[in-house]
Write a structure and sequence with these properties.
The chain is mainly beta. It has a six-stranded mixed sheet with strand order 6-13-10-16-18-17. A five-stranded antiparallel sheet has the order 3-2-5-7-9, with no helix packed on it. Strands 21-20-19-22-23 form a five-stranded antiparallel sheet. The chain starts with a helix and ends with a strand. It has three domains: 97 residues; 106 residues; 117 residues, Bacterial OB-fold (OB fold (Dihydrolipoamide Acetyltransferase, E2P)), CATH 2.40.50. A hairpin with a 2-residue loop joins strand 22 and strand 23. 12% of the residues lie in helices and 44% in strands. The radius of gyration is 29 Å and the shape is globular.
Length: 352
C-alpha cells in the first residue's frame, strides 16, 4: 500500500513538473497579429482598377534571416505563434522584377520586438514602393531623334517608350537612363511613390528644365518639360557639356559634379538672397535654373572659396555676370545656408 501510494505521489509530482514545463514553454512564445491599417490608396491605371490585399505577400523572418512565414496575406493564420525575439515583417502586393507598364507595387515593412507572452498587432500602412514615368514628345524632338521614341534603361533592362504610348511605365527605385537614337540624353533617379510626367523637346543649342512638384500624403507627382540640346546630351555631370540641372544634382549629395544654372544673385541667407546690384560679396553666388528666379526656394547657393574664383565670378567684382549662364564643378552638399548647395568649386565654364 505504501509502495502504491509512493507511486501515486511520484506520478503527481511528474505531472506537475510536466505541466509546469508546458506553461514555461508557452510563456516563451509570442503572438503576431496583422492588419492593413487603411485601405490601400490605389492609383487608377488602365491595367489596375482594384487591388486585393489578401493576395499580398507576407514575409516574416527572424534576426538570423530564417523565414518564419512566407505566403499570401489572406492565407495567414489568425495569429502566428513565434518565440520571443526580433522579427522583420513585410507585405508587398507583388514582386516588381523588370520594368513594366501599369504595374504599381504597394507594400510596407517593419521591425518588431516581442517579449515572452506578448501579443503584437502589426498595422501595415501600404504605400507605393516603385515609381513611374510617362513621356510625351514634341514634333521637334521626333524630327531630331527619330519617331521610335526614347529607350528607358534600368540596370540591364531597356524598354522603348513609343510616341503612341500613353501608359505609365513603372520602375524600381533607382537610376533610369534615357537614350534616343543610341545617344544618352539624361538620367533620372526615382524615389518610391513618384510619378514623373515628362515632355521631351529639342533645340539646337539650349537645354532647360522647368519643374512643377506637388505632394500629398501618398505620392509625389513631378511634371517636367525638358529641352534637350547639343551641349547637354547625356546630362551625367561628368563635364561642362553634360552638366546636370540643379534639381537633378541635388539627388547626388556627396558627389562631385558639373552643374549648370543662371547667376541670379548673392548675399544668401537661409531666407533670402540679393538679386539686384550693388553686391557686397564675392564669397558665394546664387544659381537658379530660371534666370528670372525670385524665390529663395528656387536658389542654389554656391561657395566661392578660392581667390581666383572670387575674382572671376564674384558679383561684387563682376556685376556683369548677373543673369549669365554658368556650369560649375563642385561637391553637392546637404546643407549650405540652410539648404542643399555646392561647395569646394574646382572649375567653371561661363557661357558667353
Amino acid at each position: 500500500m505504501i509502495k502504491q501510494f509512493g507511486k501515486i505521489v511520484i506520478c503527481a509530482i511528474s505531472f506537475l513538473i510536466y505541466t509546469s514545463c508546458q506553461k514555461i514553454d508557452e510563456s516563451n512564445d509570442a503572438r503576431l497579429l496583422f492588419n492593413i491599417a487603411h485601405p490601400v490608396d490605389v492609383i487608377a491605371t488602365k491595367g489596375v482598377s482594384y487591388i486585393d490585399t489578401n493576395s499580398f505577400i507576407l514575409t516574416i523572418t527572424n534576426v538570423n534571416g530564417s523565414e518564419i512565414y512566407h505566403g499570401a496575406y489572406g492565407a495567414r493564420p489568425k495569429e502566428i505563434v513565434v518565440p520571443a525575439g526580433t522579427y522583420d515583417v513585410s507585405v508587398v502586393s507583388e514582386i516588381m522584377g523588370e520594368p513594366a507598364f501599369e504595374k504599381p507595387v504597394y507594400g510596407d515593412e517593419k521591425m518588431i520586438v516581442v517579449s515572452n507572452g506578448q501579443s503584437a498587432e502589426i498595422d501595415f500602412l501600404c504605400k507605393m514602393t516603385n515609381a513611374s514615368i510617362s513621356l510625351s514628345y514634341t514634333d521637334r524632338f521626333l524630327k531630331r531623334y527619330g519617331t521610335d521614341g526614347v529607350k528607358l534603361k534600368q540596370n540591364e533592362t531597356s524598354i522603348t517608350y513609343s510616341p503612341t504610348e500613353s501608359r505609365a511605365l513603372y520602375f524600381e527605385v533607382g537610376n533610369v537612363e534615357f537614350i534616343a537614337d543610341n545617344e544618352p540624353l539624361f538620367n533620372r533617379v526615382l524615389k518610391a511613390g513618384e510619378f514623373h510626367t515628362l515632355q521631351l523637346d529639342a533645340s539646337n543649342n539650349e537645354s532647360e528644365s522647368n519643374f512643377s512638384i506637388s505632394i500629398d500624403t501618398t505620392i509625389t507627382t513631378i511634371n517636367e518639360k525638358i529641352i534637350v540640346g547639343e551641349d547637354n546630351s547625356g546630362a551625367n555631370g561628368l563635364s561642362a557639356q553634360t552638366a546636370m540641372t540643379i534639381s537633378s544634382a541635388f539627388e547626388h549629395v556627396g558627389d562631385t559634379l558639373w552643374v549648370w544654372g543662371y547667376i541670379v544673385g548673392t548675399s544668401i541667407t537661409s531666407t533670402k538672397f540679393n538679386m539686384t546690384p550693388p553686391f557686397d560679396t564675392d564669397a558665394h553666388l546664387a544659381l537658379a535654373e530660371d534666370e528670372n528666379a525670385s524665390s529663395r526656394a528656387d536658389v542654389c547657393p554656391v561657395e566661392l572659396s578660392k581667390n581666383a574664383l572670387k575674382e572671376s565670378l564674384g558679383l561684387a567684382t563682376n556685376p556683369n555676370n548677373l543673369k549669365r549662364r554658368i556650369a560649375v564643378r563642385g561637391v553637392i552638399v546637404d546643407s549650405y545656408f540652410g539648404t542643399k548647395g555646392i561647395k569646394s568649386v574646382s572649375d567653371y565654364y561661363l557661357q558667353e
